């Protein structure tokens, strides 16, 4: 959908297709792949394609401690540096000893639910997760996926199709929609918790709301309102029959953006809450369930 995907690129892209993340001022330097702290510019070959990604290992990185892993997916058209700048994940990663990976989509996008491209991105994200668990010793029970727009849509697709890989996903300005989702059976086969952020002024807001309602209905989740503590922000939390949880924030005055971000083309610094902080705490509370 617009971001987190559609290519119909017009069903998911208007704002996203026209919004590019600016390159970060200090891109990570290339390095050989070795499990050490720092910023690494890496490549993983999948289905005959060399897929690039950035990997941030915190200063306290210790492979013997099996750190959690967060994989962050960019909007369309976009890049790893764009989502790295926008999401601001690394301050929390450094504090909590968490690995953060930023994959590049093919030709600026991921083959998500409504766009973009035809690459086997589910297979790539599965292979990347397995590689980071095996080589960088990430904890397989604490692997999380986040993304905005096209990257958000891709997070939903991977949650359904990469069975057992992701404990939870954090979706910003993205949704569960498109042809694949018309089948009632198109839901995760093992529990995947979801936290999502929807802007009330986003042109795709109704699509995103309908999608998360469908997700909750199919998984027999029972949402109830919670106090957000922020004017203009509504929050619901739902426990689901499979043991997963769904947390939905709707920011009335926000468009197609990342709430709380201060840099990047899709930043919404005045949203009144930080999607990064809220999803980080959500991830910490939702390791993979058996």
Task: Please tell me about this protein's structure.
Helices cover 24% and strands 24% of the residues. The protein is built from seven helices and twelve strands. The strands form two sheets. The chain has a ten-stranded mixed β-sheet with strand order 1-2-4-3-5-6-7-10-9-8, with helices on both faces. A hairpin with a 4-residue loop joins β9 and β10. The N terminus is likely disordered.
Taken as a percent bin, the fraction of beta residues is 15-25%
Q: Give the end-to-end Cα distance, rounded to a whole number of Å.
A: 31 Å
Radius of gyration: 17 Å
Return the structural class.
alpha/beta
Number of helices: 7
Task: Write the element-wise H/E pattern from the N-terminal end onward.
Answer: HEEEHHEHEHEEHEEEEEH
Low-confidence stretches: 1-31
Shape: globular
Helix content: 10-25%
Name the average pLDDT.
90
Largest sheet: 10 strands, mixed
Describe the strand arrangement of the main beta sheet, using strand numbers: 1-2-4-3-5-6-7-10-9-8
Number of beta-strand segments: 12
